[in-house]
Amino acid sequence: MLQLAYISTAGQPHEAETLDAILAVSRRNNEADGVTGLLVAGGRRFLQALEGPEAAVLAAYARIRQDPRHRALVLLSCGTVTARAFGNWSMGFERGGSGGDATDLRKVVANLVAPLADRNLLAQFNGFADLHARAC
Ligand code: FAD
Asked: Which of 35, 91, 117, 126 qualifies as a cystine partner to 26, CB 3.0-4.6 A?
């Protein structure tokens, strides 16, 4: 099974309608393809992890890379894993960086990713949440 994580930048601040549309398509496609993962949106950034059968993950990533709703994708990690980190989530989602309690994103993401065995992935998500909680 392949697992990858990337970070990207949206052309404009995240809008609820755009995020809803991305999540709806992601969940539909990922469920059909056996892909699971987590998407965190903060400020203008996305941080996403995808995992599942190698061909399905690479196909999803190829589609995502071509999506004009974000740019400058940077692959943070990519490798084989023996077990899923994100269980049955076709695409878990959390949003931050839009105001409110600056500690919320940190807390929510910390809870979401706490069960992850992959310390590197855990650090990436917590680091991202920390950065964007402070940017609120
Ligand atoms: P359709 O949903 O039928 O879309 C057809 C085409 O229209 C696609 O090329 C699509 O990119 C484009 N399109 C649709 N809406 C818009 C819009 N509002 N603006 C510009 N172009 C648009 N897809 C997944 O399958 N799994 C994921 O986990 C996933 N995560 C994503 C994370 C982020 C941060 C972003 C920005 C997108 C993500 N997507 C994901 C969506 C992905 O980029 C593709 O849009 C989607 O996979 C295409 O699905 P489809 O082939 O069924 O085409």
From this structure: 91
Question: What number does the ligand 1 atom closest to the CA of 68 have?
Answer: 20
Tens-place pLDDT, residues 49-76: 999 999 999 999 999 999 999 999 988 8
Ligand 1 proximity of 71 Cβ (cutoff 6 Å): no
Long-range pairs of 17-21 with CB within 8 A, sequence gap ≥ 24 = 18/69, 19/93, 19/95
Q: Does residue 72's CB lie within 6 angstroms of at least one atom of ligand 1? A: no
pLDDT at site 56: 98
Q: Does ligand 1 have an atom closer than 6 angstroms to the CB of 63?
A: yes
How many helices (H) does the chain have, and how many strands (E)? 4, 5
**101 CA distance to ligand 1 middle (Å):** 30
pLDDT exceeds 50 at position 136: no
- Neighbour count for residue 107 (Cβ, 10 Å): 12
- Cα separation, 44 vs 107, in Å, equals 20
pTM score, whole prediction: 0.83
* Secondary structure letter of residue 4 according to DSSP: E
